[in-house]
Structures are given as C-alpha cells and as structure tokens.
Sequence to fold (226 residues):
Amino acid sequence: MSAVLLIEDDDRIRLSLAMALEDEGYQTHAVPTAEEGLEMQRRQPADAVLVDLMLPGMDGFECIRQLRRTDDVPIIVVSARDDTHDIVAGLEAGADDYVVKPVAVKELAARLRALRRRGRSASATPAVTVLTFGDLEIRPEAGEVRLHGEPVAVTRTEFRLLCELAEHPGQVLSRQQLLSRVWEYEIGDERLVDVHVGRLRHKIEDSAGKPRHLVTVRGLGYKLQP
Fold:
C-alpha cells in the first residue's frame, strides 16, 4: 500500500478526498496546513504529496519549494486555480503534475499509480555506464546527472525526461511523445513538458536562454544534442 500526504485546508474536501483515496487502496495522511504537512513529511515520509495552492499561513507554492529543498517525493498540485499563471507557477515551484478541482478521484488515482510506476522503473533504465553530451553526463543506472563533473540535483520526473531524450540523441521528440513516455499520459497538458524542460535548462545549461544541450525544434518538440 502506498502512503499519500494530502495538504488541504477545506475540511469537507480533505475528508472526502482522503476517504476516496483510501477506497482506492492508499494510506492517506490528511492535514489542513503547509506547516503541518512539512512536519508530517519529515517525521513520516509519504510516497506522494497532494498540495492545494490556497492554504492558510504558508501557501502551496512555498510548501512545494520547501519540500523540494530536501525531498524528491512526487508532488501533485490539487487546486481550484486553473489559470495558466498559477499552473505554471506550481510546476515551476517543483510540482510534477497538477489536477484541477473538482477532482475526479479515479483520474487522480491513475496519476498516482503512474508516478509510482515511474519511481519504480527509474532503476530499470537500460544499463549504460555514462551517456555523454559534451560537458553533460547522465548515468541512468545510478540516477545521476553531472555538469562539468559536478552533480546536478534533479527531481525524479526531470531525470526521467532527461533520460528519455538522452536515449534518442539528436532525435526530436514531440511534447505528446514525451507526455506518453515520461508521464504515461496518452492525452495531457503540454505545459507539463514545457515547464519541466525549462527547469532542466536552468540546471544543465550554462545559459538557460541559449541552450546548447536541450534544444527546441520549433513546431516539433525537443531534442538533446549529441
């Protein structure tokens, strides 16, 4: 059984969503504030975290940022805020995915299962010692990324995205292909890909505005330059 931490201040939503997730087979810890959620994750780490953006005290954006400083746990934003700015801001803070309220529990459970599979399969990447792209090194079996010989901290989703591109050097992969292979979504929001590519560029490029490794091919998608 997987454990899920739910951070949601609305009592009715928190209770109903926690009960629905437990019906889906998840052990759920539900708290109303970001501060309690961070403490809960420190004391009793969950396998995935669901975070509302509008929380009393510390908001969801800052909660995600603080989680990301020490934890690569999969994070899904669950929020009624559905405009592009808030969605992108949540993803840029460090979330792996988002779901807009009202929540379809079956869809949320499917996304949680996909996150769990992705975590388990990270070590199942073909065993290649080092994938080298100039000064960028990717070690799939070790779960490591290095730039100029120094380790780069990436999330699980960022690592899977980078490995997927690295396994097809110089080949353009469309956003839909990446959604299918990395997020395991046949239909999904392409902003997930764009935001994660942007975050990766800030980590693996000397200049995110002039990328040498992770390149956009206008109208087609992205590729990793060999």
Q: What stands out?
A: Residues 122-126 have pLDDT under 50 and may be disordered. The two ends are 41 Å apart (CA to CA). Residues 3-120 form a domain with the Rossmann fold fold (CATH 3.40.50.2300). The chain has eight helices and eleven strands.
